[in-house]
Each structure stands twice: as structure tokens, then as C-alpha cells.
Amino acid sequence: MKPLDPRLLRRARAARTFLAASVLIGIASGALIIVQAMLLAKVIAGVVLQGADVTSAAWALAAVVAGRAVLLWCQEVVAQRSAAAVKSTLRRQTLEHALKLGPVWLSGERSSSLTTLLTKGLDDLDPYFARYLPQLVLAATVPAGVIGWMATGDLIAAGTVVITLPLIPIFMALIGWATQAHSRRRQRALDRLAHHFTDVVTGLPTLKLFGRARAQEAAVRRVTDRHRVASMSSLRVAFLSSLALELLASISVALVAVGVGLRLIEGHLGLETALMVLILAPEAYLPLRQVGLHFHASADGVAASEEAFRVLETPLPERGDRTDVPDLRTTNLQLYDVTVRYPGRDEPALDGFDLEVRPGEVLALTGPSGAGKSTVLAVLLGFIAPERGVVVAGGSAADEFEPSAWRRQFAWVPQRAGLRSGSVADNVRLGQPEASDDAVRLALLAAGSSELELDKAVGEHGQLLSGGQQRRVALARALVTDAPVLLLDEPTAGLDTDTEAAVIAGLRATGRTVLMVAHRPALITAADRSVVVGPRELVLA
Ligand SMILES: Nc1ncnc2c1ncn2[C@@H]1O[C@H](COP(=O)(O)OP(=O)(O)OP(=O)(O)O)[C@@H](O)[C@H]1O
């Protein structure tokens, strides 16, 4: 593990400010430690030898101690603020990037890993900023100053420190090497726990229905146990390594002390100098020991930031920046020879697919389950880039356009409605935040949901609404936009025949281009045309 990931400095301005402030505070702390040792030695020697007046030195010592307390406070304030700023920057950047990567990239276990990373994961950066980095700066500044100053009083003691001090970073590097693997294992166990737990909670009604809820207890226990074992082994390494570093530093200080004691007895050193060297010796080792101590607390934070960088460094599909997207109210939309392969899949989800969508037509995409109908919509929305082939509008390829400008031409109703908690109106307004109550009512009417009150509560993932109501609210959310093309993934699934007829009539009445994935005969019949998606594309009149 690198002590300081340069990507952190590049991505978060707060981290750079923090580092600069920490270096200044570190240098000031180093100077105060030396002055404190000199004054302390002077006061003790004065008292022991009963000759000198130590009053002024005692006052100066009190001032130095107060100065160190103020520096510590400054360091804490700067660290907490920087940690908060860096976490918020990383969270924002990671979330924005994940959104740009789109729902296809987020599918699978990625969404729960991302949730863990953006919540608990990045919080682990707190000890990294508040403890580890300041200590790292002190470790780089204080020992050099202390050894230099010791050398002016006792060259042999300074030499002893110079020889023994490097043992600490060597041990730390070895320990760090072992800890990194433990931290990663712990992070993976936490990810798996989050994923499993989300799955179980979301699927609890189904599990109960099939009498499998109890069986999940054992599965949750197993995953939790794995996390516990990983955490305990991290802690074991942390405690053992602290003990090793502590022991090493104590033996080194003892070596210095024995040498100083002998030279004092033999008269080669004065009492004040000997005291100063003895007081300073532990200070040379302390920052390095503390770095080792805080290293473990920060390892989880560093693992989380590496995870965030992994997301941030995932390349975005190449898209142009043109915003002059042709108006699809008047322009044909074409797919030529489009082949799509999902990451990790050998078989293509779409193979050499051609399609032409004319303005204002209602077109049904049909075909067996898994044939690639939803994938056609994902390609049109730019959620996945075709391996071969191209999407064309008005003579230009879709990937020449800036993604959000391109997507403004479309309103999408996915297979899962994707509603969030709030009211029905809140959910419809996701399509058009400025929509008036009348516009929302009109959209609900066109979606066959006139019976739904605008302020009716919607729970998480659309709970509190029936499956059919969720679909219709999602449809109203698409209809309230002014997008010229509606991409609908089975818009009438779960609706009764009358409501389905009303929805189809509502769709036609909008006069917009509709491209819908359709399994139900009523929907296929209501379309102007239907296209079969599958290994062999058939275009039916
Ligand atoms: N995110 C994904 N990662 C990997 N494979 C995927 C992903 N999404 C879909 N697939 C695979 O791509 C193929 C086409 O899927 P798609 O959802 O487009 O089919 P579909 O025709 O819409 O099916 P259905 O009618 O059941 O909704 C399937 O084999 C599916 O397993």
C-alpha cells in the first residue's frame, strides 16, 4: 500500500490543502519538541544541581506545552474538515461516473458494492486523514530534526538512533504487506454481506411464500461469520504488529539510555546534555511508531479509496460532444447490423440486428424471452455500446452526440418501474420536474391511471402500489416528458384487458413515436408494425 495515493491529491483539492497544512504543522511540532526537551533538561538539571534559577525556563516550558496543544488542535480541525471534504468529493465523483457508466454497468453485484463503498466504505477515510497522514508527516519531519539536534550534544547517541530507526519502517513495510491482503479480504467479505443482506431483505416476501425464509438464517450466519473471521484476523495482525513495533522502539531507546548513562558516569557528558538526549530519544521513534499504529486504522479507508478509483478509472464509452441531435419527431432512427455482447458473455445478446423506426409510428418488438428486445432499447439509450454496427439518426451516428442531449429524445419505461418513495406526483415529476398538477393528471390519465390521487404515498421501490399501478405510474412518468420517442419495455404487463386498451389508446393519442417490447397479443395487434428480435430477424408487416 502506498502511504499516500497520488490519485487522492489529484482528485481532491482538500487533500492537497490538508497536506500543505500538515507539513507546516509538522515542522512547527518538530521545533517545539526540541525546544521542550532543551527546556525540560535545563529545568531538571537546574533543580538537581540546585544552582541555577529555572523560573524563566519553567515559564517558557509551559508556553511550549501550550503551543503544542494548540498545534494539535489545529491539526485535528484541519484533518476533520479535510476528511469530510475529500469524502464528499470522492462520493460525488464516483456517483457521477457510475451514473455515466449506466445501468448495464451497474447490474449484477455492482450496485450493492457501490452502495457499501459510497456509505460505510469511504467513511473509513476519517482515521486515514485524522490520524495516519498527520502522523506520516510528523514521521518525515520530527526524527530528522531530533537526530540533528541530538548530534550537537551526543554524536554516539544520535548514531545509535540513526542505526536502529530504519528497523521500524522495515518492520512496518513487512506488516503492511501482510495487512493489505487482510484489508482486501475484509472489504470483500463486507461487500458480500451487503449484497446478500440486500437480496434477502428485498426477496423476503418471496422467501416466506416458499417457506425458505428460515433457511436464509443459516446463509446470513455463514456470510456474517466470514466477515467476522476476516475482521478478527485484521485485528489480530494489527495488535501483533503494534506489539512488535512497540518492543523494537523500547529496545532502541534502552540502547541509547545505557550508552548515555555510561558516558555520564565516565564524565564524558554533562547532566543537562544527557537529560536532553534521553528526553529526545523516544521522540525520534514516537512518530514512526504512531504511523504503524494508525496504519491499520487507515488501511480500510485506503482500500475503499482504491475501490473508488477503480470505478473512476473505468473508461466511459466513447461518445462525442455534439448537442445538435436531429429531432426524432421528423427524422428516422436506424440500427444497422448491431451486435452487442455483455461483458463476461460469449454469446452475443444481439447479432447483426437491423431496424428502422419512422417518426410517429407505433412499433412492437417481439420475440422469445432472452432474445435481446430490452438490449435493443439499451443500445438506443446508449447504456451499452455495440461491438459492431451503428445507430443512426439524420445521417449521423448516435455516438457522435453528447449522451444527455441524445437521451432527451427518449422517454423510457424499463421492465422494473424503478419508483422511489414519495407521492405518485413526485414519481411522475421525475420525468418533468416543472410539470403542473394538471400536466401530471393528464399523463396519469393517458397512462390509464386516472384513479390514482396525486398525493397517494409510494413506498420504496414502488411499494404501497400494486404491480399494475407501478407500471402505469412509470408510463405516466415517461408521458409527462416532451421526448419525441417513447421506449417502453412491456408497458402493459400486469394490466387487465380494459386498462390495457385504455393505455394503448392513450399512447396513440400522444402522436409520438413508440417503440415497445411486446409479448401480449393485444399490444402487438395495436402496433402499426412488429419486428421479431431473435437469431433470425423477421420483419412482419
Ligand atoms: N446486464 C447483463 N449482463 C449480462 N447479460 C445480460 C445482461 N442483460 C441481459 N443479458 C443477457 O442478454 C440476453 C438478452 O437479454 P434481454 O434482456 O435483452 O432479452 P429480452 O428479449 O428483453 O428478454 P425478456 O423478454 O425476457 O425481457 C439474455 O441472454 C440475457 O441473459
UniProtKB/TrEMBL annotation:
It comes from the Bacteria. It is a multi-pass membrane protein. Residues 333-541 form the ABC transporter domain. Residues 20-300 form the ABC transmembrane type-1 domain. It holds the Pfam family ABC_tran. The chain crosses the membrane at residues 21-45, 57-74, 132-150, 156-178, 237-262. SMART domains: AAA (SM00382). GO terms for cellular component: plasma membrane. It is found in: Cell membrane. GO terms for molecular function: ABC-type transporter activity; ATP binding; ATP hydrolysis activity. GO terms for biological process: cysteine transport. The keyword Coiled coil does not apply. Keywords: ATP-binding, Membrane, Nucleotide-binding, Transmembrane, Transmembrane helix. Its main location: membrane. The keyword Membrane applies. This is ATP-binding cassette subfamily C protein CydD. The gene is cydD.
